[in-house]
Specification:
The complex is a heterotrimer of chains A (331), B (305) and C (329). Chain A is 31% helix and 23% strand. By secondary structure, chain A is of the alpha/beta class. The longest helix of chain C has 18 residues. The chains are: A alpha/beta (331), B mainly alpha (305), C alpha/beta (329).
């Protein structure tokens, strides 16, 4: 059995749901909720980059935060390296934090404007009491070099750096505790294209050097395509497709995945665009359509889709899809 | 090292040649350029000097009475003399000396009252904003109750309860302003909590105290600084009002408001006894307001050009 | 070739700050013909947005000022007309679509009021007539049930819908030129595709010209006919869109295209060819060619003098010393 058939699962998610209750106006109002994540089962294999794509409101960022227990899931189980994360005591959780970290999207609000670069990157070391003060400083300088910042700037403040450099600081902060898993929440979306490339290269180099596992959340299909090993697609809180990268981009099964791939603008002036795009707007996560969430915009909608939720099934080896078009034809 | 030389960021951060400055420091530098705010700062400094060096600046003892020299006019009037440059009151006390010593009291009132409001207000606001839920509700409803009363009325009630004295007036003024600070801090805490850097600190394992004191509160300083400065001004005004009503500084303390009250009966006979204390109040309040406005502009989150 | 609708010649917009003069737009020229789409593409700080604001004369003065150049709109130099006349042109003959639909619409007014405002102002329509036209416009931009949606507040609409409302407002007075500043950047990919298609259709139906400002080369490839690439306030390359993508000349343009994942025939998970370094600060531009610090082909000439716009192929301009001898080939 190859490793691909029996992967080492660093993270296992089962039935994750995250609902945000919304208070209704009237006295007799029914309490409704924003179903940000509505039943996600997902594994993240050690050493891989799992891309998670979807548009706004699909719940991908929420999922990342739930995995890190920055927000408790409404329902579901999370296993990290075999251990039940939700059953951990706060001390155990404190220790677990060293093994998983996050890089945020906005280089401006993700750094404390009143902390120096050294303080930001070294904070994790300080919190977990790693080494002496001078040892920590040494380590911070080393990390700064690794992420492409000059160590002399260790006492400068975030506002003195450009967007790309600030993202590097964020990467350095995530690396400091030598985690195994890093959730990359749209880490390059706020950067200029030429800087994006620098940071993407950095992330890939670091993954190789430090044997990191990434959950790469993004709405940018071309970036995800470049960096991921496997890709999962989310729509309104649910996974609709999951496959190896090549397979997903070459043979997308779910109509939403296809629409996404078609809609993405390609920097190639010779391609004539097939302008048969998706109609309609994304439904609100406050009142998602019944049955398959995508049925309101799906060009292949059938009656069944309006009433029942298709199961997430392995239609081909290692290619999962949630769609009635394929439920009867599972290999 | 994994990044190639070609990918080292070629550019130093802006102002690499200059010293690195924290955002607060940069704000202060911006403040320096605001002439009006600097005028306010000068005024305040003058009062501060007056307050600190009163015994050396004042020509006379503020409490020394000289019934022989009652109601002397200021020096530029016909019968005025240089012995009493601003004249005397109905007890023959030198007005200039009393005004100078009065600045001590006003500064003290400002410091004590603002410290009380700042401390308790920040505590209340931070706890309410950070923990939310029912704690938030209870604290903020308490604040609402305080705010429901006109501040001067509430201060009067407190002083009446505690007994009229300058110390109690300071406490009353401090207590009455707590809600203002609580609201500001709560709002800031809520805003900062949602920012990614706070979530990142949580992901690193930071516990609540660290989150509040290292991350959130330092970033709530801007509106607090502005409110503190302006709060100084209102504290001085309110102290003067309470003393005017006889509930604050008791005679013969040379507090400006008390002097106003005292001089009220003398308006027609000795305008100087009323005017100069009033002008002092005006200038002090003006100084703090100008500085406060300047600080508000300098600390405006337009830090990104 | 038809007469150009808009001709910008030698535009210079500088910002005078305490820390020095920022040359946000420095000697930029281009022209747009009626019914065509010109895209100005570049990264943040390149001056593309300032250019569009300059055309509309919406530059905050101080600290900004248009220090030189001509902006000929149908032959009239917009830099020389009165503010009153300019106001009658804005929203009327030239209209603008902004990036953030969330903040471009006034949250306290209903959609009908915001569209009617433009109509009443420029076309002196009465209330009822303006309402009808507003509904019609919403229909044109593809909003379902426009008769009821016209009474909505902005917060009741999704991002894509709000952008359509913005487009409706821009179209209201049948403008000849529409300036679209990053119109789809804040939108989801599937909505972006819809909006771009809408803009194309409207352009074809009304004959208006579009000046599209964007950083997204994919959007440029799909919607523009003519492209101007800007860097540090200057035009560094200009060409028809096919020419630009098939044969990019300027090292910056080439670097940009190679930075985009998925464009070159790369193997899986290879490293992207990133442009090293960062954009120089506008307050502190290098001598000579502004791209010299980051250019792998830079040689002595590049450090001393800034190249002019050369034309190595017809209709394809590039500001680079590499092409000095190849002019007119």
């Amino acid at each position: 059995m190859t490793r691909r058939d029996n992967p080492d699962k660093l993270v296992v998610l089962k039935g994750i749901r995250k609902y945000y209750p919304v208070k209704e106006g009237g006295l007799i109002g029914e309490k409704s909720a924003v179903k940000a994540v509505d039943g996600v089962d997902l594994d993240i294999h050690r050493g891989e980059t799992l891309g998670l794509v979807g548009e706004s409101g699909c719940g991908k960022s929420t999922l990342g935060r739930v995995i890190l227990r920055l927000e408790p899931p409404t329902q579901g189980e999370i296993y990290f390296d075999g251990e039940d994360v939700l059953a951990m005591s706060s001390n155990q959780m404190h220790g677990l934090r060293r093994r998983m970290q996050i890089i945020f999207q906005d280089p401006y609000s993700s750094l404390n404007p009143r902390q120096t670069v050294g303080g930001i990157i070294g904070e994790g070391l300080l919190i977990h009491k790693v080494g002496t003060k001078s040892e920590r400083t040494e380590r911070v300088r080393h990390i700064m070099e690794v992420v492409g910042l000059r160590p002399e700037y260790i006492n400068r403040y975030p506002h003195e750096f450009s967007g790309g450099q600030r993202q590097r600081i964020g990467v350095g902060r995530a690396l400091a505790l030598q985690p195994e898993l890093i959730i990359c929440d749209e880490p390059v979306s706020a950067l200029d294209v030429s800087i994006q490339a620098q940071v993407i290269n950095l992330l890939m180099d670091l993954q190789e050097e430090f044997h990191l596992t990434y959950l790469f959340v993004s709405h940018d299909l071309s970036v995800v395509r470049h960096i991921s090993d496997r890709v999962a697609v989310m729509y309104l809180g649910r996974l609709v497709e999951l496959a190896d990268k090549r397979e997903l981009y070459d043979n997308p099964l779910h109509p939403y995945t296809r629409a996404l791939l078609e809609a993405a603008p390609v920097p190639n002036a010779n391609v004539v665009k097939n302008r048969k795009g998706l109609t309609g707007d994304m439904p609100s996560p406050l009142s998602p359509p019944p049955g398959c969430h995508f049925h309101t915009r799906c060009p292949h909608v059938m009656d069944r889709c309006r009433e029942k939720v298709p199961a997430f099934q392995e239609h081909k080896p290692r290619h999962w899809v949630r769609c009635f078009l394929y439920s009867d034809k599972t290999a | 090292m994994t990044t190639t030389a070609a990918e080292q960021p070629g550019q130093a951060p802006r102002g690499a040649a200059e010293k690195s400055r924290s955002p607060l420091w940069e704000a202060l530098l911006r403040l320096r350029k605001n002439k009006i705010a600097m005028a306010g700062l000068v005024i305040i400094s003058l009062f501060l000097i007056m307050a600190l060096f009163s015994p050396w600046i004042a020509p006379h003892d503020p409490l020394e009475q000289s019934l022989y020299d009652k109601l002397q006019p200021p020096v530029w009037e016909e019968t005025g003399t240089w012995t009493y440059p601003l004249g005397t009151d109905d007890f023959g006390r030198d007005l200039l000396s009393r005004i100078i010593y009065g600045s001590r009291i006003s500064m003290l009132v400002g410091v004590v009252a603002v410290t009380i409001s700042l401390f308790f207000g920040t505590l209340a606001g931070a706890v309410a904003g950070f923990y939310g839920g029912i704690i938030d509700n209870i604290i903020m409803r308490l604040m609402d109750i305080l705010l429901a009363f006109p501040s001067i009325l509430l201060a009067i009630v407190i002083v009446a309860f505690l007994g009229p004295s300058l110390e109690n007036a300071m406490i009353a003024i401090g207590v009455v302003s707590i809600p203002r600070y609580a609201r500001i801090v709560r709002g800031s805490v809520l805003e900062e909590y949602s920012k990614d850097y706070v979530q990142s600190a949580r992901a690193l394992g930071a516990r609540d105290t660290r989150l509040i004191f290292v991350h959130i509160l330092p970033n709530c300083l801007a509106p607090l600084i502005v409110q503190t400065t302006l709060g100084f001004a209102s504290a001085i005004l309110e102290a003067a009002a309470l003393s005017f009503l006889g509930l604050g500084a008791q005679p013969p303390t040379p507090e400006w408001g008390a002097m106003l009250a005292n001089g009220r009966a003398l308006i027609l006979r000795a305008w100087w006894a009323v005017t100069f204390p009033g002008v002092m109040i005006l200038c002090a309040v003006l100084g703090f307001n100008l500085l406060g406005d300047g600080l508000r502009d300098a600390l405006d989150p337009r830090l990104r050009e | 070739m038809t007469e150009p609708l808009l001709e910008v010649k030698g535009l210079k917009t500088y910002f005078f700050t305490d820390r020095g003069i920022a040359c946000a737009v420095d000697d930029v020229s281009f022209s747009i013909e009626p019914g065509r789409t010109l895209a100005i593409v570049g990264e943040s700080g390149c001056g593309k947005s300032v250019t569009s604001l300059s055309v509309m004369r919406l530059i905050p003065t101080p600290p900004g000022r248009i220090t030189a150049g001509e902006i000929l709109f149908n032959g009239t130099d917009l830099l020389k007309v009165s503010e009153k006349r300019m106001r009658s042109i804005r929203g009327n003959q030239i209209s603008m679509i902004f990036q953030e639909p969330m903040t471009s619409l006034n949250p306290v007014f209903r959609v009908r009021e915001q569209i009617s405002e433009v109509l009443k102002l420029h076309q002196k329509m009465g209330k009822a007539e303006a309402l009808d036209k507003a509904v019609d416009l919403l229909r044109q931009v593809g909003i379902p049930s426009p008769e009821s949606r016209v009474h909505d507040y902005p917060h009741q609409m999704s991002g894509g819908m709000r952008q359509r409302v913005m487009i409706a407002m821009a179209l209201a007075c049948d403008p000849r030129l529409i300036i679209a500043d990053e119109p789809t950047t804040a939108l989801d990919v599937t909505i972006q595709a819809q909006i771009l298609e809408l803009m194309d259709n409207l352009r074809d139906n009304t004959g208006a010209a579009i000046l599209l400002i964007t950083h997204d080369l994919g959007v440029v490839a799909e919607t523009a006919e003519h492209v101007v690439v800007m860097y540090a306030g200057r035009v560094v390359e200009e060409a028809e869109v096919k020419d630009l993508f098939n044969d990019p000349l300027h090292p910056y343009t080439r670097g940009l295209m190679r930075s985009i994942p998925g464009t070159s025939a790369e193997t899986d998970r290879s490293r992207l060819e990133a442009i090293p370094g960062v954009v120089p600060s506008l307050l502190n531009l290098p001598r000579g060619c502004k791209f010299n610090e980051r250019c792998r082909h830079a040689f002595d000439r590049c450090l001393e003098a800034e190249p002019g716009l050369l034309a190595p192929k017809t209709g394809h301009l590039v500001r680079c010393w590499l092409f000095e001898d190849k002019e007119g080939e």
